[in-house]
């Protein structure tokens, strides 16, 4: 009798434990309004080393399965790609999908039926009934720079670093590319040597060459305020790198010292 009582008591405890178990520990949500919390969080649209990708974020306390429940689109007038197979976004976690125009879900990775347009585009998450859950119109993108929401404000902008699979930075960049520097001397013919002043924002690193090669941002650099001495006919090539930004375009200037000429100098 005592053994049967203990056995029945254990069964009752297990019944109630399973009945009231937290849904997040049992199964990903597959129906309901919880899908409206999913957000487009970050993406990369231009890279030489990796295909286009989009990161989704789930701020809720429950894992959410997007399969056959949400669509993602790169066109305001098209319904978009329906997530397939298992597309679970963990609670307060991330899911990365690949925008490579493959349209095949394999090995747990979602491959979308479109690529991102690095010249600027539209991106949206939609419910199956067409309701827009989240959307963003984004500008022209820079190579190897991601575009995402600031972690503290939710505002969109260029990111200081790739934070795929983790919380985004709080800092956004208005432009991911450094401003092209300027020189205080124009290309031309000069009677004697001089020093060229490089003009760029404070704390900018200045890379330059005097032999015609492209400046290398892996080599030594000058700081703004330093001058470049010109003592012979020279082609100066200058590039700037501001903090947390990619290097600028290269500026070229040609200086000829005490040279007779009949044609204009172009650089």
Automatic annotation (TrEMBL):
InterPro entries per the UniProt record, alphabetical: GH29D-like_dom, Lamin_tail_dom, Lamin_tail_dom_sf
Highest taxon above the source species: Bacteria
Keyword entries, A-Z: Signal
Listed SUPFAM superfamilies: Lamin A/C globular tail domain
Segments forming domain LTD: 36-137
KW Nucleotide-binding (keyword) present: no
Residue intervals of the GH29D-like beta-sandwich domain: 186-250
Signal peptide interval: 1-26
Pfam short name (any one): CHB_HEX_C_1
UniProt keyword Signal present: yes
The protein's name: Uncharacterized protein
Protein source organism: Candidatus Magasanikbacteria bacterium CG11_big_fil_rev_8_21_14_0_20_43_7
